[in-house]
Write a structure and sequence with these properties.
With about 150 residues, the protein is an alpha+beta fold. The chain contains 2 helices and 12 strands; from the N terminus they run ββββββββββαββα. The strands form 4 sheets. The chain has a 4-stranded antiparallel β-sheet, with no helix packed on it. Strands 2-10-8-5 form a 4-stranded mixed β-sheet.
Length: about 150
Amino acid sequence: MSSPYNGAVDISPKSVIKITFNKPIIFGNKKITLKSNTEYIVPLTLNINNNVLILNHNALSKGDRYIITIASGSVKDLSGKVCSLYTTSFTISSLTMAQMTDGISRVQKFYTKNHRLPAYVIFGDKKILIKNFQAIIEAYRLKIKY
């Protein structure tokens, strides 16, 4: 299982990437990459916490799609059994600061009127789930006041 999930869109550029295994793991050959759709290989710091592989990085580029590749043998369980090849991908939000500010304003007005958050925020023909919008704006230290 991965976070962000495979195929996710509108992810915060500062999201921590986590791959969860069904057993505790240790490092194997560490052939793990995070590559953008422009073929840029993102520098990573790798950590393991029990059964979770954590990929730390600097902020990713807005609008880019990223692919994580965990080569066979990169991690193994405590008995030495290696994991097979695993790939997953996600796309970073392309929202500008002006769009985020506008979205926050519209969400706050909705909350004032309806006493609840909307299910999503619309930008043109694009709908962003409210939980994803909150994660995106929090990466920029912005918040919805409610």
